[in-house]
Amino acid sequence: MNRDADSGRSTPENGDAAADDGAAKPDGGTASDSLGESTASDDVERQFDEISIARKGRWLGYALVAAVVTYLFLMALETVEWFRADLPSYLGTFAEALQDYFPFLVFGEGPVGVAFVPGGFSEYVTFIRQRNLLYDSGFFAGADSVFEYPILLFTQTGGPVQLFGAAGETLAIGFAGTIMAFPLALLFSILGSGRVTPFPFNFFFRGMMSAIRSIPALVWVLIYVPLGGISPTTATLAVATDTIGNLGRLFTDELEEIGDGPVEAMRTTGASKTQIIVFGMLAQVRNSFIAWTLYVFEINVRIAVGLGIIGAGGLGLVLSVQQGLFAYTNMMATIIVIFLLIVSVEMISQRTRAHLRAEDEPMAAVQLILGFPERLVRSFLK
What Å distances lie between residue 358 and 48, 287, 340, 368, CA to CA? Predict the structure, then answer.
């Protein structure tokens, strides 16, 4: 061991670190404290550098993602010919159409450039009544008195659904398609569940539902054209086919989430497989199945409007015809009826699903009918 001749202390150069670490510092500390502080400071700086580098890398990643999204967005606009559409040159035509869309507003008049004319709403009402969009005025034409109305309501062709005119036809496509699809969706979901059909055979049914779901209802109705063209009948078939895939998949996911307790309890009692499925599995998801069916029914009513635009009837067909005639006021009247129909269906469906989720006490039929206006107002206020 070498020592410094003047101080008599060992130095880092001669390798005696232990003696140097124990030397007193002028501020009262020791060399070991100074070395420890230096090491801690180095750790902090290293961590700060690592955080800084990680942050720069993260921002670089964000910039790269933003650049890719921007590029794809521009390419998408180029694909749809956005930059060659010359939209500004059509703004004048669109402004004139707005006057027809909203006949209760007169642009270019009044203190704020727009005058309100309440009488413009009558154009909507007139068209809705002429085309029986919400109510078929000839439904009770065969009745000799008001007392025959209830009889005609259930004996006339179409029954209560036909009473709602074109809206009733759209509603019928969505409703009938949902009901037709329910049994097959339920069957496919049970067979597609791994609890019922062993792997990999259950994937055959899952694959069928995925294949059905991959084709939109708009395409299904084109596939069914050889059955009689595009009509309300083929539209109902298209909605039903589409619903089998969508509803079946939702049912399958619900069955995969049920608890094992009730199923195992039934097995211990010697119950058959059918009894286990009905009372052990389906009993647990009954409310969920009803809620999902109502939700899909909402979607199917919207799909029925879209199918009507290509000729399947109902409100969609009326909208398409009026668009072809450039009758924008009539178009807006039809859109208003579509809005009322969709909102009504959604409101009833949502309230029913909320009731199922809350597990409320079921209401009696009289209470259900008499309390509907109150629930309707509450739904609007929420």
Answer: 52, 10, 27, 17
Residue 142 burial by Cβ neighbours in a 10 Å radius (0-12, 13-18, 19+): exposed
Which residue in 178, 275, 270 sits closest to 217, CA to CA?
178
Secondary structure letter of residue 116 according to DSSP = E
Query: In angstroms, rounded to a whole number, what is the distance separating the alpha carbons of residues 56 and 68?
Result: 18
Nearest to 302 by CA among 332, 333, 345: 345
Chain centroid, CA 19 distance in Å: 75
Q: Where are the beta strands (DSSP E) in 55-214?
A: 105-107, 114-116
Average pLDDT of the residues in 64-83:
95
Which one is predicted more confidently, 124 or 29? 124
- pTM (2 decimals)? 0.75
Say yes or no to pLDDT of 29 above 70.
Answer: no
**What is the chain's mean pLDDT, rounded?**
84
What is the per-residue pLDDT across 179-190, written as a single tens digit (0 to 9) for each? Answer: 999 999 999 999
Alpha-carbon distance 165 to 150, whole Å? 17
State the Cα–Cα distance between residues 192 and 212, nearest whole angstrom.
Answer: 14
3-state class (DSSP) for residue 110: coil
For the chain, what percentages of helix, strand and coil (3-state, to nearest 5) are there? 75, 0, 25
Q: What phi-psi label fits residue 118: left (phi over 0), alpha (psi between -120 and 50 degrees) or beta? A: alpha
Mean pLDDT of 189-198: 88
Separation CA 321–CA 311 (nearest Å)? 9
CA torsion sign for 340, 327, 169, 132 is positive
Cis peptide leading into residue 200 (ω within 30°): yes
